[in-house]
Automatic annotation (TrEMBL):
This is VanZ-like domain-containing protein. It comes from Mesorhizobium wenxiniae. Residues 41-115 form the VanZ-like domain. InterPro entries: VanZ-like (IPR006976). The chain crosses the membrane at residues 12-33, 45-63, 70-90. The keyword Metal-binding does not apply.
Amino acid sequence: MLRAGSYPIAARVAFLVALAGVLLLALFPEWLLQNLGVTFTHHGKLIHAAAFAVLAALGSVGWTKHKAKLIVLLAFSGLAIEVVQGAQLIGRGPDVFDWIADCAGMACGITIASWTKWLAGGLP
């Protein structure tokens, strides 16, 4: 069982693993994803929002005093993903609405993390 002081460490590790997963899925070429059986043809914006909500929630628990830096990092990460996808290096196209969904997901994730902290009685 995790002690209250180890939650930030666990959240940081989970954040880094989740960020790596999101970046891999976002930057793999379309043909490779199809060969692996991964398709995101439906509900793309919802998937973007959910991924960035998880990242924001984990990041805000892991780095409680650096939420502004976290928001900037995640916003630029989402933007960088769209720029790379637009460069046609990986056979995918950019979509500004994907980035907007990323930002909406970040807002939800930070809100959820704040509510969770409040409900848990102010865990560190």
